[in-house]
Amino acid sequence: RPTDPRPLEEQARLLEEAYLPDGALEKYRRLSEVFPHTGTDRKALWRAAQLLEELGRLDEAVAAYRTLLERFPHHPDASEARFRAGLLRYRQGKDLEAAALWAEEPEGRGTSPAFTRAVFWQGLALERAGRDEEARRAWEKASTGTGYYADRARERLSREAGFGAYHGEPALRESPEEQEAAEEWLSQRSGRPFSSELPAVVRSDPLFRRGEEFLSLGRPEEAREPFSLLVQRFRYHGPALYALALYFRNQRLHALSISCAERLIELTAGREEEAPIFLLRLLYPTPYAHLILPEARTNRLDPLLLFALVRQESRFDRYATSWAEARGLTQVIPSTGRGIAGQLGWEPFRLEDLYRPFLSIRFGAWYLGKQQEAFSGQAVPALAAYNGGPGNARRWADSVPAGDLDLFVETVDFAETRDYIERIYTSYWVYRRIYAGPGAGE
């Protein structure tokens, strides 16, 4: 009887690389048998379940996930195994079995992300099984959580136009009353006075003075480093963060303003849902509206979706540059930029042009609009194409029933793209709540 799992693990890996899945599965079975209830057993069961899923042997994959659940009920992998087993049953049309699996997810302290996801999907399975009232109750439970699946549950419960389907005129103007209410709320929470005036301790700080000097010389890019260090220095000083958020917004240093608002809400509210509307406007701002709104109309896009995309891509930093050389507000990469320039007849085109706000927004909106058009007006696969490439988005879309956006998201196998979709989705609904709520546009 082997005492070292490594030779068997290496054999399984080599068999997978040689496209001999049955041999690999036999090695994983042997590992699980020889080293039961150990980390080796758990990893072997997990990889076997994944491999069976990839091979389309769904019943066997579900059995492997169930075995993992039975042997390791308290391991973090248990929630994912339960979810995958339920999802496979859902894809097989076994809706009540899927719902029963997801119903086993423990709620834990508060409403955990895993619980919210399971209950949301339980609602989908129950709805498809014709149990509408039970589905609604599941979504009501999921909607009390936070994050992507809670937002999805709220959308399913809502009668409003869905994700990416708002085409009204956003109410962007803030009122002095909103600001006064926010400052009063902050003062009550912290026991300290809040105002838009920068505290003397900030104005006298060498980092602030250095940043201001760069601004006076017309070099905002160089001002970001001292200002970023300044924000870190005052990360526990609520009044300073609030005044800096307003100062940076006025200086069009939007990414820094958002960072200050983010930290301020962490200190005072804990959850965004509890923050006053004025603070949410700082956290989810609408700079470049004079460019974004007309480009959204031209490209038949929801304007709030475009705001959410720019916020995710660059935090409204016109000079943002990624490791992949994506540039500007909408983070267009050089090859895509050249292609868009050719399509739009934008000549001559230089890569530095992507740092120009009007061009970046025009290119990004045009590209997103084309992707949305290619996917029958659906925003979710359009976002997947924007981030992960049109070819990959088509691959994911072709693997699920047409229009099933929830299965589409679960099928996305690029972690970055999956996270991108979920973040924009969540941000979008905050934008909707702030700028298109009751009375918006009146």
Tell me about this structure:
The chain folds into three domains: 1-75, Tetratricopeptide repeat domain (Serine Threonine Protein Phosphatase 5, Tetratricopeptide repeat, Alpha Horseshoe), CATH 1.25.40; 176-283, Alpha Horseshoe (Serine Threonine Protein Phosphatase 5, Tetratricopeptide repeat); 289-435, Orthogonal Bundle (Lysozyme), CATH 1.10.530.10. With 442 residues, the protein is mainly alpha-helical. Helix 21 crosses helix 22 and helix 21 (379-388) packs across helix 24 (415-435). The protein contains 24 helices and no strands. The chain starts with 5 loop residues before the first helix and ends in a 7-residue tail after the last helix. The model has no long low-confidence stretch (mean pLDDT 95). The protein has helices at residues 6-17, 21-34, 39-54, 58-71, 77-91, 95-103, 113-128, 132-142, 148-157, 176-190, 200-203, 206-216, 220-233, 238-250, 254-268, 277-283, 289-298, 303-314, 334-344, 357-374, 379-388, 390-398, 405-411, 415-435.
Brief description of this entry?
This protein is an all-alpha fold. The protein has helices at residues 6-17, 21-34, 39-54, 58-71, 77-91, 95-103, 113-128, 132-142, 148-157, 176-190, 200-203, 206-216, 220-233, 238-250, 254-268, 277-283, 289-298, 303-314, 334-344, 357-374, 379-388, 390-398, 405-411, 415-435. The protein folds into 3 domains: 1-75, Tetratricopeptide repeat domain (Serine Threonine Protein Phosphatase 5, Tetratricopeptide repeat, Alpha Horseshoe), CATH 1.25.40.10; 176-283, Serine Threonine Protein Phosphatase 5, Tetratricopeptide repeat (Alpha Horseshoe); 289-435, Lysozyme.
